[in-house]
Every structure is written in structure tokens, then in C-alpha cells.
Specification:
mainly alpha, 2 strands
């Protein structure tokens, strides 16, 4: 367990170090790129060496953000939009001729602003930190074990695992959204708070509560649990994996 936490902390440390390096490189690229008004013909005036350096920097940024956040994260998408914004040069002597400028000063500046924002959010702790990443990994391992328990027909144990994951994930989601979580908070109360903050809607609140209740019946040996078979517990785990852990 300690080794796993250390690995995540190392990954976070590498990310912070690397993004600072890329910010320095990006500022250097900004100094050697050109404004539209300084260009007579983009296909001639932009040095090949400059384009190569910009492309290498772009790929390095993509690789870092992809590995740390994933391609579906809005940080990755925002950087991609920034670096790929189309800048068109209108030739003053050729009214019908236009050229898309690769890696203009505007592109680099916009991408730098995006990268700087991500760096600041990370340093302020407003992005998933090592603890939350570790917990996500732990929950994933628990789910794997729960699916294995279903295969062995240990349905109560699998349901209790799901309840544990749901409870901790809801509490973490509240904390990330600046919702107070008293020591003996009830999940029902926290779900209401999440709905009030528009993190979830009413139908989602009711479904999560019903899934959590199944685990509670199992944990306390209630008669109500006997009506749930393998199919229902499998559905509980799949919902926990696909809907609750992605909140």
C-alpha cells in the first residue's frame, strides 16, 4: 500500500516538474514565432527549424496531459483547442489567396495560457491529488474483488464492498465540491446536498440511495437482502463502476 502511494506521489511530482519545463520552453518559442503582420508569406517566412521546435513542444505537452489526465479530460481538450486555433493570413497583393499560419505567436500564447492555468490549478490543489488518485485505484481494486465474489456466489460480501465504495465516493465528491461532511454524516443527507449543488439530479439521487440500501441490507443481515439475486448484485457493481466512480 505504501509503495502504491509513493508511486502516485512520484507521478504527481514528475508532472509538476515537467509542466514547469514545458512552460519555460513555450515562452522561448513565443519569442521566436511571428505575428501575422510581420509575415509576407507564411509558407516562406516561417523557418522550418521553428516549426519543428513548436511541433516537438506540442507533442510533449499532449503526451504529458494525456498520461496524467486522459484524452477525455477538459484540460487536454482545452490545450488541444488552444494550440490548434486557426490563424489565417490574408495576402495583401492576392485578394483571393489566404494561408493558414502554423504555430503563430497567437497559437503559442493561447496554449501557454492554458498550460499556465493547469499548472496553477495543480499547485493550488484544485485538481485530483495523490490521495484521491490513490483512493480511485483502491476502489477499483475493491470492485475487482467484488466481481470475483459474485462468481463464487458470495453475494452479501460483494454488496457490502459496493456499499463501502459508494459511501466513500459520495463523501469525497462532497469534499471536492466544498460541502461539509460531519463525522457521522448519513449518505441520504449528503446526496441531498449534492443535488442542491446540482452535482446530481433527483433521479440519480434516488438510484444511488437504492443501490446503497442494498449494501446496507447485506451489512446488517436484513431480510430485505434475500430478494436480491446474482443479477441484481451484478447490476449494483456495474452501476457503482460506471456511474458512481465517475461522479
Amino acid at each position: 500500500m505504501i509503495n502504491e502511494i509513493d508511486k502516485i506521489k512520484q507521478k504527481e511530482s514528475f508532472f509538476k516538474e515537467r509542466i514547469n519545463q514545458l512552460l519555460i520552453e513555450g515562452k522561448g518559442l513565443y519569442d521566436i514565432t511571428s505575428d501575422c503582420k510581420d509575415i509576407d508569406d507564411p509558407m516562406i517566412d516561417i523557418p522550418t527549424d521553428t516549426i519543428m521546435k513548436c511541433k516537438k513542444w506540442e507533442l510533449s505537452c499532449f503526451n504529458l496531459l494525456r498520461n496524467y489526465f486522459g484524452e477525455t479530460h477538459h484540460f487536454f481538450k482545452e490545450f488541444k483547442d488552444a494550440i490548434n486555433k486557426t490563424v489565417i493570413f490574408y495576402h495583401p497583393l492576392h485578394e483571393k489567396r489566404t494561408t493558414v499560419i502554423p504555430y503563430s505567436k497567437f497559437n503559442i500564447a493561447t496554449a501557454l495560457a492554458c498550460l499556465s492555468y493547469i499548472n496553477e490549478e495543480t499547485n493550488m490543489g484544485l485538481i485530483l491529488n495523490a490521495k484521491s488518485v490513490y483512493e480511485a485505484s483502491l476502489f477499483s481494486n475493491l470492485l475487482d474483488q467484488a466481481f470475483g465474489l459474485i462468481e463464487m456466489n458470495y453475494l452479501p460480501a460483494a454488496a457490502i464492498y459496493a456499499r463501502l465504495i459508494i459511501e466513500n465516493k459520495i463523501k469525497d465528491t462532497c469534499i471536492l465540491n466544498k460541502i461539509d461532511v460531519p463525522e457521522k454524516s448519513k449518505i441520504a443527507d449528503l446526496l441531498v446536498r449534492l443535488r442542491e449543488k446540482q452535482i446530481i439530479d433527483l433521479p440519480t439521487e434516488r438510484v444511488i440511495q437504492s443501490k446503497y440500501d442494498i449494501g446496507t441490507y447485506a451489512a446488517h443481515g436484513k431480510e430485505e437482502f434475500k430478494k436480491y439475486g446474482k443479477k441484481e448484485i451484478l447490476d449494483l457493481l456495474e452501476y457503482t463502476r460506471d456511474k458512481i466512480l465517475t461522479l
